[in-house]
Amino acid sequence: MKTLTALVLAGTRAGGDPLASGAGVSHKALIAIAGRVMIEHVVQALDAVPEIGRIVIAIERPEVLDALPGLRVPACRCPVSVVAAAEGPSASVASVLAREGVPLLVTTADHPLLRPEWIRSFLDATPADADATLALASRGSVMAAAPGTRRTWLRFVEGEYSGCNLFLLRRPAATGVVELWQQLEMDRKRPLRLMLRLGIGFALRYGLGWLRLDQALAKLGRASGARVAVVELADGRAAIDVDKPDDLELVRRLMGGTTRG
Length: 261
Known about the structure:
Elements: E1 4-9, H1 18-23, E2 32-33, E3 36-37, H2 38-47, E4 52-58, E5 80-83, H3 89-100, E6 104-108, H4 116-125, E7 132-138, H5 139-145, E8 154-156, E9 159-169, H6 174-184, H7 191-197, H8 200-207, H9 213-224, E10 228-232, H10 245-255
Parallel strand pairs: 1-4, 1-6, 4-5, 7-10
Antiparallel strand pairs: 2-3, 6-9, 7-9, 8-9
């Protein structure tokens, strides 16, 4: 695989983010954990992966990142550029993909637990014929890493999974996946409604627990015109991002830090 560009989605919700407001910062990405703000942890993990040659951050106000030492040399080997976020994560991905092309690795700024070894495992396990790949972690691995944590679960015959905020857009056909993502984005926290957008029969099989993961991937492939694959990450922490106050406290405990922004 040629050198990757990594995109970090750091935009905030329309009207602001309650976690950011509670921490007294403009963006959730700027909440401090274990001595650094969240986006610095994410960038440092990406920077430690040799295949990554550039990092792009999408955020509405690029100037809020100017004072962060973790985003520039000597702390960061990769050149880091900042672009204005679009309206919603998928729109930001579409914009950067159109400009940067493939391969493009996508993650989010609210995943300070991100580890270089997870990224390497994800890249190494990506099928050679996949246009787009996403990372999932099983419910068992997530619960083993953080008993009692609340996540959004995708339920298939094989088991339940949570997304790991890690995507690889490897070939030009991945553009179709991003276009489909834009259509589905509003329902990402409501899996059954998301499935309804893909067809009644598909949604019924999902709702009844009859849908296999390979069937879901095949449907996504037909809907997007791309070959879509999944890589399951063994470490359940890979599925733990910071969406809620409980998540923030959990991640602080897991990282052994109590610093608050």
